[in-house]
Structure formats: structure tokens, C-alpha cells
Specification:
0% strand; disordered C terminus; globular
Length: 87
């Protein structure tokens, strides 16, 4: 299992809002789904299978959320833009 950081009730509500919102970038929504699944006790392997991602991706975002909280889920790696059309 990954890092066992339990999101607060406020964080859980925000994560669920972001997943449901049409304007949330897909990569952010995926990260939210990872954290939400982890919050209910799913293993890294189970989360990876459910969301069709690599287990290392699950580990990365669980760790990032534990270290940086909600803001960390919105980080975009240098050189990666949300969209080439948004300026």
C-alpha cells in the first residue's frame, strides 16, 4: 500500500467536486480519482487496475497529495501545457 494520508472531509468534498466538474482537466480528475480510491482503502494495484494506469502513477499521486495536498494535484510538469489552445 502507498502512503496512508487520509484526506479531511473538506478535501474529500473538493476532490469529488473536481471529478464531477466538466471544466476539470482530465489529468487532474484522474489524480482526484486516485486519491479518492486510496481514501477508501483501495490498494495501489487495485487503483491502477480500476483506472487503467501504471501502479507507479498511483504511488506518485498518493505521495504528492500527502506532501502537497490539493494544490499538488494541479501541478503540471515543466514543458507540459494543459492545451496548446489556451493562452
Amino acid at each position: 500500500m502507498g502512503i496512508s494520508y487520509q484526506p479531511s472531509a473538506v478535501e474529500l468534498e473538493k476532490l469529488q467536486q473536481w471529478v464531477a466538474a466538466h471544466g476539470t482537466p482530465q489529468q487532474v480528475a484522474l489524480r482526484c480519482r486516485i486519491v479518492l480510491a486510496a481514501a477508501v482503502g483501495e490498494s495501489d494495484v487495485a487503483i491502477a487496475e480500476q483506472l487503467s494506469v501504471n501502479r507507479n502513477t498511483v504511488i506518485l499521486w498518493r505521495k504528492r497529495f500527502g506532501e502537497e495536498g490539493l494544490d499538488g494535484l494541479w501541478d503540471i510538469a515543466a514543458g507540459r501545457d494543459e492545451s496548446p489552445f489556451i493562452k
